[in-house]
Amino acid sequence: MKKAALILYSNKIDEYLKCDSVIDYDNEAIMELADTLLKKVNNKFDFIKTAYEFVRDNISHSADINEDMITCAASETLKAGHGICFAKSHLLAALLRCKSIPTGFCYQKLILDDEVAPILVYHGLNGVYIEEHRKWIRLDARGNKTGVDAQFSIETEQLAFPIRPQMGEVDSYIVYPDPDIKILEKLRNIKTRTELWHNLPTELEYNK
Questions:
Q1: Which residues lie below 8 Å from residue 172, measured CB to CB, with a gap of 6+?
Q2: Tens digit of pLDDT for each residue in 119-177?
Q3: Please, are residues 138 and 159 in contact by the beta-carbon 8 Å criterion?
Q4: Tens-place pLDDT, residues 89-107
Q5: How far, rounded to the nearest angstrom, does the alpha carbon of residue 69 sit from its chain's CA centroid?
Q6: End-to-end C-alpha distance for the chain, whole angstroms
Q7: Long-range contacts (CB closer than 8 Å, 24 or more residues apart) made by 62-65
Q8: What pLDDT is stored for residue 3 in this prediction?
Q9: Predicted TM-score (pTM) of this structure
Q10: Phi and psi (nearest 5°) for 100?
């Protein structure tokens, strides 16, 4: 679907480049991977696509592999080789910011499971600045599977999940510089993904 224009939460571009305890691209493994991926391509545009596809395809979604461990920080997610949508968005942000590509965080409110868990929860993805096109785009590195086919695209979005307003699902085109505090609290304080699945975020601190 053709997307609406993205809206930056902060007008300070440095906010979308910072390194911290979650987007920890000063980690040696993150830096090494970013260097390795950059060497495979000729420019930053191709690097963005390569890094996105790496996280999408090589870092498993924890639920898809029935992994109960929760990851949060980018380095933790890379080391474990898996994470839920939020953790994978942290890793992609770290890889891109490591090479000075402004990257933020976007959220959608989706039904967890139509059949067994018809509740609305938040889903995380990234907003990325494409310098060559002078525009921000959204990328969803959740990981593809049957019924999910997210792709890198500049003009026409192809995210993991179509929004169904008739089901109460809500899209948002705001690009935040930091992961939402309420989401980080969940990832840090809940011990297992099984428990987290009964306590997924239904509200954002940003929306207060």
A1: 106, 107, 108, 109
A2: 999 999 999 999 999 999 999 999 999 999 999 999 999 999 999 999 999 999 999 99
A3: yes
A4: 999 999 999 999 999 999 9
A5: 18
A6: 29
A7: 62/87, 62/193, 63/193, 63/197, 64/143, 64/145
A8: 56
A9: 0.97
A10: 60, 35
Q: Which of 31-35, 112-116, 144-148, 160-164 shows the lowest per-residue confidence on average (mean pLDDT)? A: 112-116
* DSSP secondary structure, the chain, as one string: -PPPPPEES-S-GGGGT---SSS-TTSHHHHHHHHHHHHTSSSHHHHHHHHHHHHHHHSEETTTTT--B---SHHHHHHHTEE-HHHHHHHHHHHHHHTT--EEEEEEEEEEETTTEEEEEEEEEEEEEEGGGTEEEEE--S--BTTB--B--SSS-B-SS---GGGT-B---EEBSS--HHHHHHHHH--BHHHHTTS---S-GGG-
The answer to whether 186 and 202 have CB atoms below 8 angstroms apart is: no
CA pair distance 73, 165, nearest whole angstrom = 32
